[in-house]
Fold Lipoprotein.
Amino acid sequence: MKAMVVSLPKKIVLLLCTAVFYTTGAFAYDSVNPERNAAVPQGQIEWKPVFPRALFLNKPEISVMETGGLAGPIEYQDILKNKERAEQGLQSVLLNSDIFALYGKPNARTMGILGQYSLTEIEPIMNEFVKLYDVANGNRKIIPAFYIIYGTCWPAGEIGILSTDIVEQYIAFAAARGWYVFLDHQIGKYSVAEATKKLLPFLKYPNVHLALDPEWRTTKPMKEIGSVTAEEINEAQQIIQNYMIEHGIGGRRMLVIHQFNAKMIQQRHLVKSNYERVQLIHCSDGFGSPKLKKETYAYNAVAKNIPLKSFKLFLKPMVAGAGYDVPIMKPEEVFLLNPRPYLIMYQ
């Protein structure tokens, strides 16, 4: 990862590749930003996601027969209300919003945009990007996010862990502004389960989501591309879900998996994306020309079992020899990808 120079375009026009539909109350619950939790009035036109089923929970958390007997009219209504609240809490914020993230490792100038700037310096940069995207994506909202490299792969696959104090500073800064934080673990020589468990304690913060990067699941970083299996990805989701249930953590959390090479996710067709508490996001990574990046995205799009997609772009770096996108794709090109990405990040 190399340090990046931020170049903000003067004007962006986004073309959203989505259909519209009439809804009688689509609801996307956001526990971090309650003001976003507004049911759509009857007859109002609202954006229809390309994969709407992937944005909803797979089964209700509370059964109407949970009490073990027949309920009277008042009891039955109470049960229905509880069931509805549970369902709303598990529906995805991506129904009505896209996420824009700035990627990197704090205090590491050669590792992405977050390493180049302090928290106070990065805020206006974030706001400028978000303003452009928010104007361009119509009725959909933009949620800003920090995408933090929490576990960095070192030589021989050892992992350097970012200090908890720094992580919590970014989490608090983001939470105060209604932003999200994604914590990314590069896995290294360790198992996917071990990497996932290292991230779990941060789920106590409602604005925190998780990420795993198979590229760095190796003992030879920068010399070979690493990989994970479908079974390991499914296990990671189960670990997250179990932890949330055991610790009384409500709602759903996102788990992002990166890919730019076929070997990075073994037996990809066996990856599951139907865990009730975990929303799996498939990120198209890698730098290069628009043609190459579109080809990579098309390869990832084939994995319809992971329907929610993400797209990563690489700004021109400050360090000579570091890879980046030439030319960098325009936002309207990004949103014309099929299926459209819901999470966009800049390194």
